[in-house]
Amino acid sequence: MIEGANTEFKREYAESIRKSVLAFANTEGGCLYVGIADDGSVVGVADTDDVQKRIVSLCRDGIRPDVMMFLSCDRIVIENKDVVRVQVQRGTDCPYYLTGKGIRPEGVYIRRGSANIPASIGQIRKMIREAGDFHYERERSLEQELTFERTAGIFSEAELPFGEVQQRTLGLVSADGLYTNLGLLLSDQNQHTIKAAIFSGKKQEVFRNRRDFSGSLLGQVKDLIEYLDYYNGVHSEIHGMKRIDSRDCPVEALREAVFNAVVHRDYAFSGSTLVSLYEDRIEILSLGGLPEGATYQDMMMGVSIQRNPKLAEIFYRLHYIEAFGTGVQRIQRAYEDCERKPQFLVSDNAVKVILPNIHYEGVTAENGKAKESMAVYGPSYKKGDDLRVYEAIASGADSRRALQERMGFSLTKTINILRRLQDEGRIVRIGKGKNSRYGVKG
User: Fold this and answer.
1) Same domain? 307 vs 397
2) What is the pLDDT of residues 37-88, one digit of tens each?
3) How, if at all, do strands 350-356 and 242-247 pair?
4) Half-sphere exposure (CA, 13 Å, Cβ side) for 379?
5) What's this model's pTM, rounded to 2 decimal places?
6) One domain, residues 228 and 293
7) Domain tally, the chain
8) Per-position DSSP letters for 250-303, written without gaps between them
9) Which residues pair with 429 in a beta bridge?
10) Both 244 and 158 in a single domain?
11) Do 233 and 358 fall into the same domain?
12) Which residue from 42, 217, 312, 412 has the least number of CB within 10 angstroms?
């Protein structure tokens, strides 16, 4: 016998046996012989019972998930000498990994020729997919050092518990106590991002503003909604003695489009969800196309095939979405009295929703003459919470803490408003760190 892809020799018991068993289980299986030197010469084992017990204990305690059902350990005789044989089948719950190392290259090994080598991130993901019945959100996360400060804060604001029991119930933690990909998406370490850009005109030529949202997916959505709300201009019309305000993009349609893009995207893709605001429209691009088995007609009819059902359930619990499968209809209803209608574009790997600016026509014809509308395009500090903060700064509340206490806003909301007012040149920041103060510009 010689060493190869399915055969390995060990002169005596050593903890490195664990890596060999792990590599065999993750690849095509194989046999490991204790009592045979690297050159193939048989040296034998003095106490085969003791070695077998130590190998079983080593693999039972040192490999996750449980690999024991794919492993057998027995004594055989070769050249009149006792040898311990460890037979390993390819496991059905790959990737197997070293306890304490996690599902990462330093913990996952595969067999290449006669060597055990660390698996790459791509190979680990391939093993997870090939394990069968793949659902991204419930698979084990490659990152296990996770925190949930932002998500816990959002649950607290909604008066919902977010302890260890809830994390298991919601699907953030699996039955074996490991964080799932859903846990990763809601963690502060989440690497999937949303990129938003504000353009002048109708093309991607001149940036007015841009933001990247990272961290907890729930936090990203909350911050994105606030960001878009600020840039979703107000159109005012006078009817008799009343002034009626409406937004360039119906608020309900915009929220539904954002929630759908986040809940239904395929997070096996590494790219960002993209939001682009132009003078005449907002485009929201979500990766992954439609879920398997769904058609464009199904989507338009409200058929709900959820790619990420546990994520959707969390959005439902937080009242971000009111009912499953109603998003497209709600978007359409928001535009039912408008001349310009939303568009839904679908490819194999992406879905794009285009929401028209219902006030884009800057002039209207009346009696053959042009009449200017009263639309206010782009951001305006003279509205809502931004105006309140601006007025508070003007009246003397000059620190972030003072503003937060006076307004009763969260830390994140206060910071976002201050950033917007600075971006628009309405206020200036004086100093750095805890000593920062804000003043009205000019």
Assistant:
1) no
2) 999 999 999 999 999 999 999 999 999 999 999 999 999 999 999 999 999 9
3) unpaired
4) 25
5) 0.57
6) yes
7) 4
8) -HHHHHHHHHHHHHHS-TTS-SPEEEEE-SSEEEEEEET-SPTT--HHHHHHT-
9) 438
10) no
11) yes
12) 412
